[in-house]
Design a protein that fits this description.
Layout lengths: L2 E3 L2 H13 L4 E6 L5 H11 L4 E6 L19 H10 L4 E3 L3 H4 L18 H4 L3 H16 L3 E5 L3 H13 L5 E5 L19 H6 L1 H15 L5 H12 L5 E10 L14 E9 L2 E8 L1
Parallel strand pairs: 1-4, 2-3, 2-5, 3-4, 5-6
Antiparallel strand pairs: 7-8, 8-9
Helix pairs in contact: 6-7, 9-10
Length: 281
């Protein structure tokens, strides 16, 4: 049965106990509202270490005032059942007051990769992500951490934080898990109306169109971006936030696709719901 831990100091004590016994730890950080995508990350992590820790914490620091923190889906009982089914050893589910003291005045800021794409659209987002992930790393002391490709920029930012702050943690990327029709699994998908859900497939179709064009040798980014915008005109409910074709490592925009070195990222609103997706070329 998965051990539920609520207090940070208890989590750190348990982690130190694992290490004292020579046990390795894998961490899968989540905000709860678990779905098959999270389960696949857990299964991947389960093979990489002796002990599997899943964190469940809706992090207020990564939400702007106009975003969906208050309505973000939360069902700890259901999440615990999923963790139990996936043979998770420890579920760390702290409260915000235990993670952030009332007079807390320190944050972790990555100053380059976090400034583009999601960083432009959500300027305070990544300082919240890096701060909470640094806290989780300090408390759980994992040997390996597994993050999903769906949040590819987040993965890049965390990789840079691990490098620059000298964490001895292996970062592993889990592939994006998709619904049967191709939509990337997300806890926010449940916000979509039936018509928005149908139209959301335009994001995946846009990425597949780019992939097909690149496979055919059409590598000019300007033409690819123009083609995506034309394709999305057929999806009236999609309000494109950004389409970016960038270097996989630096996230710098490209003028020409470099095979094996390029990421294509897309973000859009459908009503009040904001979705992201990406592919690697």
């Amino acid at each position: 049965m998965a051990q539920l831990i609520r207090l940070p100091q208890e989590m750190n004590s348990v982690s130190k106990g694992f290490h004292a016994k020579g046990r390795t730890i894998a961490l899968v950080p989540t905000m709860g509202a678990l779905h098959l995508g999270h389960r696949m990350l857990m299964r991947q992590a389960r093979t990489l270490a002796d002990e599997l820790v899943v964190s469940i914490f809706v992090n207020p620091l990564q939400f702007a005032p106009n975003e969906d923190f208050e309505r973000y889906p939360s069902d700890l009982e259901a999440d615990l059942a999923i963790c139990e089914a996936e043979e998770v050893d420890v579920v760390f589910a702290p409260t915000a007051p235990d993670i952030y003291l009332p007079d807390a005045s320190c944050v972790v800021v990555e100053e380059r990769l976090s400034q583009v794409l999601e960083g432009e659209a959500r300027p305070t987002h990544f300082r919240g992500v890096t701060t909470v992930v640094a806290k989780l790393f300090n408390l759980v002391e994992p040997d390996v951490a597994v993050f999903g490709q769906k949040d590819y920029q987040q993965l890049c930012v965390i990789r840079r934080m691990i490098r620059d702050l000298n964490y001895s943690i292996e970062l592993v990327m889990g592939p994006t898990v998709r619904e049967s029709d191709g939509l990337a699994m997300s806890s926010r998908n449940r916000y979509l109306s039936s018509e928005e859900r149908k139209q959301a497939l335009g994001l995946r179709k846009a990425l597949l169109w780019v992939e097909g064009e690149v496979a055919a040798g059409r590598l000019e980014v300007e033409a690819l971006e123009r083609g995506v915008r034309e394709l999305l005109q057929g999806y009236a409910l999609i309000q494109l936030d950004y389409l970016a074709i960038v270097d996989r490592v630096t996230l710098v925009p490209l003028q020409r696709v470099e095979p094996e070195s390029t990421a294509v990222a897309i973000a859009a609103f459908l009503g009040r719901t904001r979705l992201i997706d990406n592919i690697l070329l």
